[in-house]
Amino acid sequence: MRLAVAALAAAAVTIAALLCVDRSSRREERAERLIANLARVLANPDEQARCTAGPATWRPPRAPHIGAVRITEFSDEQGHHVHVSANGPGPRAFPPPPPPLPGLDPQLEPIEVVVRDSDLRPARPGAPALDDPIVRALAVGDAVSLPGRWWSDTVEVVLRRARDGRCAYVHARGHLRIFAPRTRDSLPWLLPLAGVLCAVLVTMTPVVRRIRRLTDAVAGSAATGFVAAIPIEGSDEVAGLARSFAEASRAVRTQLSETAQREATLRDFLANTTHDVMIPLTVLQAHLAGMQDDEQAGRPRRGEILTSAMDEAHYLGALLQNLAAIAKLDSGGWQPVISEVDMNALMQRVINRHQVIARRLDIAVEFAVPDEPIRAAA
Questions:
Q1: Is 122 helix (H, G, I), strand (E, B) or coil?
Q2: Is the bond preceding 110 in cis, omega lying within 30 degrees of 0?
Q3: Residues near 32 by beta carbon (within 8 Å), at least 6 away in sequence
Q4: Which of the given ranges, 102-106, 113-117, 337-341, 348-352, has the highest pLDDT on average?
Q5: If we measure between CA atoms, which residue out of 171, 185, 152 comes closest to residue 28?
Q6: What pLDDT shows up at residue 376?
Q7: Which pLDDT score, from 0 to 100, does residue 150 have?
Q8: How many Å apart are CA 184 and CA 204, to the nearest integer?
Q9: What is d(CA 111, CA 145) in angstroms, rounded to the nearest whole number?
Q10: What one-character-per-residue DSSP string does 289-323 give?
Q11: What gap in Å lies between CA 313 and CA 47, rounded to an integer?
Q12: Angle of helix 237-297 versus helix 303-331 axis, rounded to 10
């Protein structure tokens, strides 16, 4: 239905353009007929005399109307003109008919006529003056057809009858009958309409079919998760739309994958951090338990136990700072700082922490480090 509506809209635009062209051609045709009729009327000396005598009221006479009766004229043996009518009683003899009086074609009526003198002044008061382009055109020609706007139905001509006098120019204006029936021209009007409808349907149907396939492919890609399921055919706008869908799908899936990877990394880090936090907490509890035993036994406090307990408390604080640091690093707004780490000192710190737990469990821990400190970038 949308395709049919689009085709009808295109056909309506085409018909409007053809109407404008038809109106322009009919306006030119009527202007030529009007010039020819006025020239034939003004060629009659009687009409010239009437126009010169009363230019303000002169109008071209109307040609006599001939009915639909079919008449045949020929000469008999005596030289008389004989008229045979299809609806008459039969052959009858008539005297020779007079020549027809010149007059305006009834199909050109009604028109408005303004007679002008040799200086293009109108004989009728209140008539408008002619524009300069028309005056220049009349200087080189005997008849001018005034071009109207494409939506106008006015036909306007100026005919020069003589070089001087009161009836030197005849200015006539008429109007087209906009919706005049033109049965014989109906087929040329229908052919462009049918051609436009067929062209729109033939052109747009494959495009609509491709868009529907693209819609199904996008829906299937969203359901199955396969980006390659979106078809990209050709190099037109539909193919560009398919490429945009595929690129957007890839970008979304990449973001989802990165988010899932960050979540997995964060879960692993939390699990490892929980394990790392439990060790210093156990060591700190062991130190506190040792201090409590010393207090109950009346033994003096040992400074190394208190120092080790403080170290473990600082280590717990460092782990919490690491949690905040990993969150900042994951957001992408921070960059890690690479520096040298003394691996011997790191090993010594780890052993000292575990020896406290091992001592309470009666486990001996032995270790060794190289004499030369090992440093690593970390």
A1: strand
A2: yes
A3: 145
A4: 337-341
A5: 152
A6: 95
A7: 59
A8: 33
A9: 14
A10: HHHHHHHHHTPPPPHHHHHHHHHHHHHHHHHHHHH
A11: 128
A12: 170
Rounded-to-integer distance, Cα 104 and Cα 261, Å: 94
Beta strands of the chain (E only): which ranges? Answer: 71-75, 81-85, 92-94, 111-116, 143-146, 154-160, 169-175, 340-342, 375-377
pTM of the model: 0.42
Q: What is the pLDDT of residue 369?
A: 92
Tracing tokens 């000396």 back to the chain, one arrives at 45
Q: Residue 185's pLDDT band (boundaries 50, 70, 90)?
A: low
Distance of alpha carbon 104 from alpha carbon 127, whole angstroms: 22
Which residues neighbour 306 within 8 Å (Cβ) at sequence distance 6 or greater? 287, 291
Inter-axis angle of helices 45-53 and 2-42, to 10 degrees? 90
Within 10 A of 224 (CB to CB), how many other CB atoms are there? 9
Q: Is the pLDDT of residue 208 over 70?
A: yes
The pLDDT assigned to 229 comes to: 58
What sign for the dihedral angle of Cα 228, 229, 232, 238?
negative
Phi/psi region, residue 23 (left: phi>0; alpha: psi -120 to 50; beta: rest), is alpha
- Round to whole Å and give the CA distance between 233 and 246: 13
- Counting every residue written for the chain, the total comes to 378
Identify which of 134-138, 174-178, 213-217, 331-335 has the greatest average pLDDT.
Answer: 134-138
Q: Which pLDDT value is given to residue 71?
A: 45
Tokens representing 125 are 């008061």
* 171 beta partners: 114, 158
3-class DSSP assignment, residue 89: coil
